[in-house]
Amino acid sequence: MNEKSLRDLLIRIKHDEISVDAGLDKLKDLPFEDLGFAKIDHHRQLRQGFPEVIYCAGKTTEQIVTIVEKLAEGADNNILATRASYEVYEAVAARIPDVEYYDSARLIVIRRGEQEKRGHILVVSAGTSDIPVAEEAAITAEVMGNRVERLYDTGVAGIHRLLCQTDKLLAARVIIVVAGMEGALVSVVGGLVDKPVIAVPTSVGYGASFGGLAALLAMLNSCSSGVSVVNIDNGFGAGYQASLINKLGEAGI
Amino acid sequence: MNEKSLRDLLIRIKHDEISVDAGLDKLKDLPFEDLGFAKIDHHRQLRQGFPEVIYCAGKTTEQIVTIVEKLAEGADNNILATRASYEVYEAVAARIPDVEYYDSARLIVIRRGEQEKRGHILVVSAGTSDIPVAEEAAITAEVMGNRVERLYDTGVAGIHRLLCQTDKLLAARVIIVVAGMEGALVSVVGGLVDKPVIAVPTSVGYGASFGGLAALLAMLNSCSSGVSVVNIDNGFGAGYQASLINKLGEAGI
Amino acid sequence: MNEKSLRDLLIRIKHDEISVDAGLDKLKDLPFEDLGFAKIDHHRQLRQGFPEVIYCAGKTTEQIVTIVEKLAEGADNNILATRASYEVYEAVAARIPDVEYYDSARLIVIRRGEQEKRGHILVVSAGTSDIPVAEEAAITAEVMGNRVERLYDTGVAGIHRLLCQTDKLLAARVIIVVAGMEGALVSVVGGLVDKPVIAVPTSVGYGASFGGLAALLAMLNSCSSGVSVVNIDNGFGAGYQASLINKLGEAGI
Amino acid sequence: MNEKSLRDLLIRIKHDEISVDAGLDKLKDLPFEDLGFAKIDHHRQLRQGFPEVIYCAGKTTEQIVTIVEKLAEGADNNILATRASYEVYEAVAARIPDVEYYDSARLIVIRRGEQEKRGHILVVSAGTSDIPVAEEAAITAEVMGNRVERLYDTGVAGIHRLLCQTDKLLAARVIIVVAGMEGALVSVVGGLVDKPVIAVPTSVGYGASFGGLAALLAMLNSCSSGVSVVNIDNGFGAGYQASLINKLGEAGI
Amino acid sequence: MNEKSLRDLLIRIKHDEISVDAGLDKLKDLPFEDLGFAKIDHHRQLRQGFPEVIYCAGKTTEQIVTIVEKLAEGADNNILATRASYEVYEAVAARIPDVEYYDSARLIVIRRGEQEKRGHILVVSAGTSDIPVAEEAAITAEVMGNRVERLYDTGVAGIHRLLCQTDKLLAARVIIVVAGMEGALVSVVGGLVDKPVIAVPTSVGYGASFGGLAALLAMLNSCSSGVSVVNIDNGFGAGYQASLINKLGEAGI
Amino acid sequence: MNEKSLRDLLIRIKHDEISVDAGLDKLKDLPFEDLGFAKIDHHRQLRQGFPEVIYCAGKTTEQIVTIVEKLAEGADNNILATRASYEVYEAVAARIPDVEYYDSARLIVIRRGEQEKRGHILVVSAGTSDIPVAEEAAITAEVMGNRVERLYDTGVAGIHRLLCQTDKLLAARVIIVVAGMEGALVSVVGGLVDKPVIAVPTSVGYGASFGGLAALLAMLNSCSSGVSVVNIDNGFGAGYQASLINKLGEAGI
Amino acid sequence: MNEKSLRDLLIRIKHDEISVDAGLDKLKDLPFEDLGFAKIDHHRQLRQGFPEVIYCAGKTTEQIVTIVEKLAEGADNNILATRASYEVYEAVAARIPDVEYYDSARLIVIRRGEQEKRGHILVVSAGTSDIPVAEEAAITAEVMGNRVERLYDTGVAGIHRLLCQTDKLLAARVIIVVAGMEGALVSVVGGLVDKPVIAVPTSVGYGASFGGLAALLAMLNSCSSGVSVVNIDNGFGAGYQASLINKLGEAGI
Amino acid sequence: MNEKSLRDLLIRIKHDEISVDAGLDKLKDLPFEDLGFAKIDHHRQLRQGFPEVIYCAGKTTEQIVTIVEKLAEGADNNILATRASYEVYEAVAARIPDVEYYDSARLIVIRRGEQEKRGHILVVSAGTSDIPVAEEAAITAEVMGNRVERLYDTGVAGIHRLLCQTDKLLAARVIIVVAGMEGALVSVVGGLVDKPVIAVPTSVGYGASFGGLAALLAMLNSCSSGVSVVNIDNGFGAGYQASLINKLGEAGI
What we know:
Eight copies of one chain form a homooctamer.
Chain A: H1 3-14, H2 20-28, E1 33-34, E2 39-40, H3 44-48, E3 54-55, H4 61-72, E4 79-82, H5 86-93, E5 99-102, E6 107-110, E7 118-125, H6 131-143, E8 146-151, H7 160-163, H8 166-171, E9 174-179, H9 185-192, E10 197-201, H10 213-220, E11 227-229, H11 235-251
Parallel strand pairs in A: 3-4, 7-8, 7-9, 9-10, 10-11
Antiparallel strand pairs in A: 1-2, 4-6, 5-6
Helix pairs in contact in A: 4-5, 6-11
């Protein structure tokens, strides 16, 4: 309901093309669907370029299945549900065709829009144990229509594994760096490239890692410029933002 | 020293165009200047598109002035020093011509490259008290060659001040949101746009703000997608990353 | 045992209507019942307008059942037990008739007083995952004799879902806002209304949510005036205080 | 701009009483005044019953004076500025007549509306050192048109000082309890009354008080029902919410 | 091995009553028994008046049983093991006669010394959920030869339950106060008595209780004098120290 | 106002020895003096054996002087004010004779009661930097009528300094251990003695000492039994409790 | 690829002993093996004197088995995997001969190099519950070719158990001290010896131990010089560093 | 007082070479000097190879000067005082000849023993702002008789500054890495060398650095093996431990 559509609406009211009450309804009736326990934001694809993503944690299976069904009705865009258990996947798959499940990333994907692959996002991870979060980021970006490269297990304890592949770092438009423990990889990568770096701290570690706090603080204090940070284990958020950035480069928007 | 230049170097050694020792020197002699207390990274502009930025906190005035002088020698790029006191500015200005000082943002700027203004970054701040950090972000981005718009004092306690200007939000390529206290502005802006949002928590607040921790945690947990976060009061870091992103859109890189 | 009843007692002693020892007993014999492991505060209904509520966590099933039975003896007020498992409910229901169980809110309710429905409390929740805590608040308030409206899944990521229903916000006497993650909804609601807002942070979230700490700190630092906060996941506490406030409006006390 | 006024506007457009463009302007032109560094929310008094309150921390004296002047132009409501130094007060008083300053509470008050004193809020403080915060709460409530009683230095180390005055506790419509250190006073008061209690933790204390964290956590975990909490040292916030609650009782709203 | 016994030893060496090597052995051979995984401190009863107490958490059942057996050999003092599961109790009871198990307090007790009951320690608890920790304190003190009184479920939400029993508070030589949530009971009791109060915070609570941190900080910041604090849930430590204090009063040591 | 005096009062009312209103007054008129900003608890000496101690932090000099004057009127007990600056001392000394000031301990003492020196408390400190807190404890105990021994700078980095003086440890009735940094001294002392140990963490240290948090946590987790803990830098609290304990031993109470 | 081998390579290229492309490959082809989910750092043994150690937490069993197999191919060095469950051990043992499992330390060891036992590291632990971490340290050091002595259950609550064995402390080249709770043992040992001490805080404890935080902070603040600290429960890290230090003493490197 | 000297003493007593009382004195009279406020540990040089180091923070100038004088009497070893202000230096220099002051490192040094320079410790720092802490480490090690190399301003934001000097890293026996902000340099260095690395987090940074906590946690969680950590800003502690380690290599101890 931007300025132009508001103007159009007022003109149509003035011209009696629609009644005042109908205009009022339109102004009040914003495009979401109320299920009681959830208000599905059908407007989000228009507003943000991608439909609402379902965060499954804390929702009942029944709630999730209902929301997915509503989103999938006549959808021409891919649908994504995060932090989904296998049990939730099975319940969804029993009601909707062609549902995919990514086990380590705990993602449910329903592909409805075959978007042109765009650009090139690089997902770098520090250790093998960080892969589930890295995959959450990578698949999220792919589902949103981006080409994604992966460079895994390149932690700074053996930094030559990273340095011999700086060409891969330099080739990407956006880089997501996923690391637990002390998260030092972010600063090293950030110092080598001239593209935005999105850092994802993971909860990999123990003791004074405090569930990822150590990596989070380290990344927020990175001495390398051009780095920003998302929540601990939030591969989804990194993939989402990387997609928004990659689109800018795609179109020269 | 990328693959191509390495290949060229090897070919020149093979063809006796340069001696083995000279080649060895080139391979060892990476482009930084060692002042003892600092190693100036002259290579950074090539590698990252902007020269090394001087973080003044914890450095002596003498050290800062020396580093600035070295960076300014024959520079064709703007030079930036952050967290600089007025005293430091005076010491620099006594040795180098045409130095500017931005008081609330505590920035020293030396304009040496008149870059074409590019693109359009929007800096939104929640309250008047957040302006110093917002200005640090805005001026950093401007110094790096970007066009910057400002939208200040739009906190969610009077959300109509923001909502009536959503056209400004939608017009930007990248948005920096600066907010202290509970940082709620980030989530509201993040939910309205389809562009990347960089969140800057500030230390504005008291008590359970814990020096900006409340805003930082809130922003990291934003329910809006497309948001990433930099350190508390790190206006510089947000401006820097926004510049990198804006350039992608500029050139369709 | 307020000033008036104390005066009455003294006068009756003076007039020999009751003996010194009986007076002494009255003064000593405050109205609670000692079960050894618990001292049931039968006086609370007189003092605070609602009988003691049983916090089940950490109590054995046997202890809970005994306390409920004592409270239910001849009660003419509703009885409430919080944080109750289904097993506890079954044990209570085996001994007392007409016990209700609210699954997601983990509440046991025994309706003994059919109070007139009073006033109007609005419970707003940010996401579907916050509903259990919101329901704990809503049912608590209902059991205490209030009319309760609900407005669920109105998080700020899709703020139009909230803004198109500001009439509902404005119609309530007290508003309870339940939100996890960054808790931004509280500040938005607080800025739109002129009624007291009680904020309930929830533990919905992960990583740097730190079990609800992020939402708690955000709410304590809300830039909107008129907001106060209860403990993380304390739907009961919010419902209880909202009921006290709502009663003020009811009677013009 | 509520539903009724929106309907009126549409009818007037329909009837050609105002043009489409003028209607558009009205819809866009929300009532705030843009000073660049601040957007004064003149609408707030209509929306929330009291004009915008100026939080002085982090603002320059010049900014504060300008905002106060704008708010004071033709005001018929009291004006309040919090966390104001004496220097700021002097600068304001040099430009505006009849400005009052409350030293320990650090409040600037400009009385423009002589509101009828309403109701009765009780402010209880634990120790003498807590008085500045208690006064911030009390004066805020008075400025907003409430009658306020005070009961100071009634900490639980000498609980008879409180217990002998329970009649004062029972007489109030809302109670604000201000306490530092361990904040136990809140739970004692909360257990004695049937009215809402707003708890204000203060930073009074040392060592493991951690700047008021101990009192804050204690109050959030109060075993007494009917208690909610505001930020550390936030006397203003407590006074503001108490005023909203007291008004409900006043009018039987 | 105090000064007197050292002097005796030297004199005996001088007088050839024992050889230098035997003297050396005595000086080296301090009274503990080395089991490899544990060094049983048989000297502790002499040094501290009670034998080593076994902390079972983190030890294997086999280790615990072996240590208990060694301590029980010819013991004429009671033996205590804390944080013991029922499984550990069963394993101990299978090897040693007359072992008792206290379920809620998770204590194993082997009574070998029938000490005269001494003095009078009062254990006060705030809520029914705090009883397991209170019992750990009470039984520890009893096993160490003290008379113990209990006053349970006297939380400040219904403070008359405590105030009507101040005679019990005043009669004790030492008072242990066990409370979770906000721990306010400690300050109230501390303000009423002239005897030392040992405060035990418990992990009873949720959300911003942070596992007992809220109660711990509150107790450390108590405004009442005469209070000291032990670790969260450390009923054993409180019972132990109370016993040491009670003995002082017993003997007028 | 205990049971006996209450019974007496009732009998006197019954016998018309005092009127109902006078009785009412007696019941209401508890023994404190209300100065508005403070309620002086004259009853405390009766209730707790020592008059109210003035915590100076956060109070104005005027308030402190007034309270001291009230307490000193006809006092026959020593008077103590803690956390007092030299300026406060001067203001007090200008109005009251024979005031002493202890600089490093920041204590004001007015000696009015020459109590018999009792018993023997030992104050042990780890380092020279801990002496101010140790002196606060020692002087507090002395002012309350105890004999105090000192053993300073006996940190575990040179543990022979402590071990060669175990006779001093064993001779005391109560031991106060004052230590900053890692606070290890407490556990060593606690393992050597059979008397209660009161641990005082200090804020001596830097970095990860976090203002005394490291020592506080260490002391709470001491592996030695018989240890309890007071707030960081709370020498007063330790001296106070030690005095209560020492009195038990004095009289064989 | 150090300076010497680089010079050799360049000379061979110059002399046409290898082609430019082959030289380029050598420069690019650093010695790791890419398995996709992991990049095995075969170079690490050359660089750091011991092959890559596998951190099993967060890796799938399949991933671990594959990595172990790759490392074991033709290995002439021992292989170590930490934080391994028994299930992982069984899966490894099913594919590779002569695999050992250390249950309490959760280590998998494959002995392939029979290194001469070197030097002498002493592992001291405070309590029996700390043994698993102590064993992780001890076995790690043994597997890396060191002689290791153990001194267990020597906590400061019975400090004579330690003091009578100072000869063992003085005999070692490096000392690892493993302690939970308050970690005081580190400072005592550190004050007795003139060799480096590596402190390992453990998560043994409860309540305000906060998962080992108390011991960690205590050790970082040790008043004894010569102490450094590794992560909570990081026996492996301590054993590894102790081995590096011990080698220095071995060879007089 | 080790086993051998104890045996000698006993033999001499047996042979009447010294009296029992004299022997007793020797056993009691351990070598420290008691100044009341401090117990100077003259034994430390024998026990730990270097005399007691004076930590100046929290001590009065008078105390420091007295301790230094006592240590300097007839000393044949260098004397070190840390965290010393210039004022303290002046007071010391007024009483003792040949005192040096290191400004940025805040160290006082009195050279009394000209020890042979031994070995080779490398101090690496991340940024220019970290130099004061790095110098504290370097000078401490030098004063203790070690040869020290420095490599400053080699932060990972320009990692080529470090990588081109790996020969310097490989040449050292021990490496101290000093870094603030995110401390990533430690992990990079740790992964390149086969020598022990001592990490020193600094408080350089702001916001979520939390006074060095971010760097501390990062270093404790380093993915590189062979790293241990000292307290924030504890250059002294790192220099001290590095000296102990370097001596092992020196002598092949």
